[in-house]
Every structure is written in structure tokens, then in C-alpha cells.
Amino acid sequence: MVKKKNPLKSFGFFLLVLAIVAFSIFPFVQMLSLSLKYQWDWGNPSLIPRKINLEAYKELLNIGQDLKNVPESVLTLLEETPELTSQQRAAILAKYQSTGEVFPFLRYFGNSLLLSLSAALFSVCLAIFGAYSFSRLRYRGRSVIQRGVLFVYMFGGILLLIPLYRLFASMGLLSTPTGTFFGLLVVYMVQTLPVSLYMLGNYFRTVPFSLEEAAMLEGASRMGIIMKIIIPLSASAIATVYIYSFMIAWNEYLFASVFLKNYKMLYTLPIGLKTLFVSKNAIWDRIMSASMLTAVPVMALFMSIQNKITGGMAAGGVKE
Amino acid sequence: MRELKIRKPALPHDQQPIVLAGMNARALREQRFGWALVFPSVFIILALILYPVVYNIYLSFFEFKLTGDNIFVGLRNYLGVITDSEFHLAVRATLVYVVFSTVGTTLLGLGVALVMNKKFPLRSFVRSLILLPYVAPVISVVFSWQFIFDPVNGIFMDVFHNKLGLFAERFSLIGSPDTAIWVAILFGIWKNFPFTYLMILSRLQAIDETLYEAAEVDGASGWQKFKSITLPEVYFVVSALILLRVIWNFNKFEEVYLLTSNVKVLSVYTYLKAFTGTMDLGQGSTLAVLQFVILIGFILFYVKKVLKW
């Protein structure tokens, strides 16, 4: 059907799209801009820095920081005494580094990554089998499980926080760093499991049953069907659910702040950043570049498989 | 306009009735296999979600520390919470937050979905750009928002005080509880509208194009098409999204607490009560129970009065 285009209307539509985009991305633009500004430039409302400042990024990523705080006299001393072993040299230099002031971004980043990757992995693996079970197989109690999964949506983190904290503490789990890390991992897995079960269950229902029937006639087992038909056909949905679970764990603050209170080494990015913000080291360029570096991995991950994800999400509604 | 007929599809395989009597060997095997597959998930959810919830209710009648014995105090925690005026403020703040952020998120999501359903250049790029607020970690965007509303350097005050002269002086919008809640609501809308938009958009794309073509032949206006075709088609997904959003925003912690310390919704209030200062874990668990009860009440009200199920 051919429609006449009203230029005024298309211009209005264009403005509308522009407004939506501006609203969505302005805080990101602000973040990027401020992370690159010098202190004297903060009051300048323009988003383009007058002079680019990369110091904050270098500091966070630990680039060129080795000799920054070392006094001149010590450096000359080191040069004049070549008989020192490299270990001794490192020990002397280490004294002047990491006085606890610098934000150990890379460590927090690693903690967050390890926790989120493994929690999402466990959650998705369990959910594939669980979701297949209640979306395809027929047995008594199935609908109870299906509805129960939805019911779990109603429990907020705060409702689980105190009892789980108390339970883990009385089990002695929170008295060692490893135990605490494990406890947090389990919490993240549990928090993402219902979502994973629900989303995958919905998707598996859209995979045509005739495919499975055909495979069964050829003698494939149920397990074989899951491995060879369901998982490959649902790859995009599984990726979506994995990323979704990863993001939930990557974002989590509530449990991390309570569980990890006494283990600074185990801090994840959200608590690390919050601690930085209330500390005396809080300056806007450092906070904003840390924010950028926290956001970029997730956003890049999302963008790289974005078509698959939105396709996967949409397919759940489109297919019969 | 022609009446629209919706085909009732045959029951899919998984919804066909279960025949229990005379169950054959295959069905029995299927039953056992089904349970075996779902058991780990069910066990974990029971042990680490349902049991803690019940344990939390139990704990709400006790006074306790992190380790050591529980001391039974009966209803003292409940009395303490209910007579606390800060609790009343927290309930009110939560209701305001939930209602306005849910309405805002849903309306904006619906509007954006309608816009993105039209064809225009660079559409797929724009579509992915506007998903960013939802994708970005909360902690990474709160500081940027705080800077925008910063009284000294922030762009908001620059525009509304310096350029437009709407405010007589620069002040911190996030600084006082009265105004901070509106910033928190706006932040919540900004953060979550992409999810709503995406869900509604995928439903919009599933609408049969021929319905609109038929309506155009009948001379229906844009508004009529929206009211008679689009709205009924998205009605279910929108009401489900509202219900989910209410539940999620009611329990929201990060998006409020990390943005501002001045908005004490129930989750934040409970957190502060249980984990800062005197660390009153007993009253904390009582608060968590009450929050859950209020949520259930809200949901029942919504389902009965709004959805009329």
C-alpha cells in the first residue's frame, strides 16, 4: 500500500526518534565526557572536554603507574646500586605503590567476572534440563513446579538476605574468604535460576514437537533429543538467558555488600565503586572512568550478540 | 469494520491431558525422567529460596545476632516496626515510587514500541542504542545521574537555573527526600523502559499486517486502528508487564539506594535497619515479612480491581 508522506509529519517523527535516543543515551555521553575532563573543566556544561585527560583511565588500568609515586631519591638510589636483585628492587618499589589509595579496579573486575560467569553457567545448565522437563514432559506435579517458578518472582532480595546471611554464617561459610565467595556464587545462581527456567521453558515450547517425534521414531533417547535438537535449536535463547543471568550477577550489590563486608580482596565492582565514591579518593574523572569501564564490557557483550538476543526474545512471541 | 475471528489452536503437546489410569511404560518412563531432570532446580529453589523465606518469618519473632542463640520475643519486633513513624514514611515512599515508576515505564515503553514499529532509516541501530539503559549495570550509571543533578557542576541546574531561569538558585535535587524520590522515579523509568518497549515491540511485530490493511480499506483513522487493533493485541502483554514491573519495583533496592541515600523505600529502610547502626536483624526480618505482605495485598488488589481476573 502506497502512502503519501507528509513532510511536516515525518519531521515531527524524526524529532520524536531523536528525543527518545537523546533521553536514552545522554547519561552515557555525560559519563564519557566527564571521564575525559580535567577538574578545571567540570563546571563547563559543554560535553566536549577542552583538553582530553586520560590520567584516570591509566590509573584504573594500572598503565604507567609503576614509578609514579616513587620519590626521586629512591629512584637514583636504585640506579646507583646495581647489586640489588630484582626481587629486592620490586620490594622497595612496592613500598611506594598501593598505599590503599588507588582503586584496585582490575582485581574487582576479575572478581566480578569470575562470579558472574560461573553463576550464569551453573544457572543456565540447570535451567536447560529443568525447563525442558516442565515444558515438554508430562508428569504429576509439573504444573505446580511451573507456577512455583513464577511465584518466586515475588521474593525480593531483601526477603532472602537476612535468613541466608544468618544460615550461611551459622554454617561457618562466611568465616573464610573461599566460603564467602562460594556462598555468594550460590546466591547468584539461585537468583538467576527462576528467570532462566521461565525464559527457557517458554522458548522450548516453541520448538516444534514434530522434530522430536521424528527423532524418537529413529530411536533417539530423550537425553539425545535435548543434546542434539533442543540445545542447538535454542542456541540464541540460551545465549540470551546466559547473558541475562550474567547481567543480574554483574549488577548485584545487595548480597555482595553484606557478605563481602570483611573481605576487601573479594569486592566486586559494584561495592568497589560505591566504596570509592564515598571515600576521600572520590573525584569525578576517576569515578566516571571506573563507571565507563564497568559498563563497557557488558554493553559490548550485549551489542555483539544483540541481533541474536532481540531475535531470540522476539521469536518467543512470534513463533507458534 | 469486520469482526475479527481468532482461531483457537489445538492444544500443544505439553498441555494435553495427562492420562493416569492405564499409563503405559513409556509414560511412566517419561514421568520419572521428567522428575529427574527438574529435581536439581527444584531442590535448589526449595532449599535456598522457599526455606529462607519461611525461616525469615520464624526469625521475625526473635531477637538475634549473626551467630549465637535466638531469643524469642513474640510480637515485639512487629510492635516496634508498626509504631515506628519511619516505617510509615517508608511505606508511603514505596507506594509513590512503585505507582509512578510503573506507570511511567509502561507508557514510555508502549510509546517507544509504537515509534520503533514504524520503518525509518537506521532503525536497527536506534533500536540497539535505546536498549543501553537497561543493559548497563546500575552502579555504572548512577554516578552520571548524580552529576547531571549536581548543584554546582550539573547540567540540569545549568539549563533550569542559568539558561531558563526556572529556579531562583542552584540546589541539589537529589539532596532532599522530597525531590530525590522524583529523580529516583525518573531514573527507574529511564533504566527499565527498554525492557517494556522490547516486549511490547515483539508483540506488535506479531500482529497480522492484513488487519491494518483491512481497517484502512474500511477508512479507519490512525487512532481507531490503535484502539481497535493494536490495543487489544497488546493488552495481555502490557498487563503482564505492569504486574511484573510492580513486583520488581516494589522490591527494588539497587536502583534507589545506589542513586541516592535520601529515598528510603521499604527495601532500603530494611537494609539500613538490619545492616547499619545497631544492626537490628530481628526488626529487619520483620520488615521483610511486612513488605512481602504488603506486596501480596497490592497484587491481589491489582489482579481483582485492575485486571478483573
Can you lay out the helices and strands and say which pair or pack?
The complex is a heterodimer of chains A (320) and B (309).
Chain A: H1 7-35, H2 55-61, H3 72-80, H4 86-96, H5 105-136, H6 142-151, H7 157-170, H8 177-204, H9 209-217, H10 222-233, H11 235-251, H12 254-259, H13 269-278, H14 284-304, H15 306-318
Chain B: H1 25-59, E1 62-63, E2 71-72, H2 76-82, H3 85-116, H4 123-129, H5 132-135, H6 138-148, H7 155-163, H8 177-205, H9 209-217, H10 222-250, H11 254-257, H12 266-275, H13 281-306
Antiparallel strand pairs in B: 1-2
Helix pairs in contact in B: 2-13, 3-8, 3-10, 8-10, 10-13, 12-13
- How many helices of chain A? 15
Q: What's the count of strands of chain B?
A: 2
**Sequence stretches where pLDDT stays below 50 over 5 or more residues of chain A:** 314-320
Radius of gyration of chain B: 25 Å
Average predicted confidence as pLDDT of chain B: 86
Architecture (CATH level 2) name of the domain at 85-274 in chain B: Orthogonal Bundle
Biggest chain pair contact, residues each? A-B, 98 and 98 residues
**Overall spatial form of chain B:** globular
Mean pLDDT of chain A: 83
Q: Based on CA inertia axes, which overall geometry of chain A fits? A: globular
The tally of beta strands of chain A, per DSSP, is: 0
- Class computed from helices, strands and strand pairing of chain B: mainly alpha
SS field, number of helical segments of chain B: 13
Specify the CATH homologous superfamily of the domain at 85-274 in chain B.
Answer: MetI-like
Q: What do these coordinates show?
A:
The complex is a heterodimer of chains A (320) and B (309). Chain A has two domains: 66-101, no CATH class; 105-318, MetI-like (MetI-like fold, Orthogonal Bundle). Chain A contains 15 helices and no strands. Chain A has helices at residues 7-35, 55-61, 72-80, 86-96, 105-136, 142-151, 157-170, 177-204, 209-217, 222-233, 235-251, 254-259, 269-278, 284-304, 306-318. Chain B is mainly alpha-helical and 309 residues long. Chain B has a domain at 85-274: MetI-like (MetI-like fold, Orthogonal Bundle), CATH 1.10.3720.10. A two-stranded antiparallel sheet of chain B has the order 1-2. In chain B, α2 crosses α13 and α8 packs across α10. Residues 1-8 of chain B have low confidence and may be disordered. The interface between A and B is large, with 98 and 98 residues.
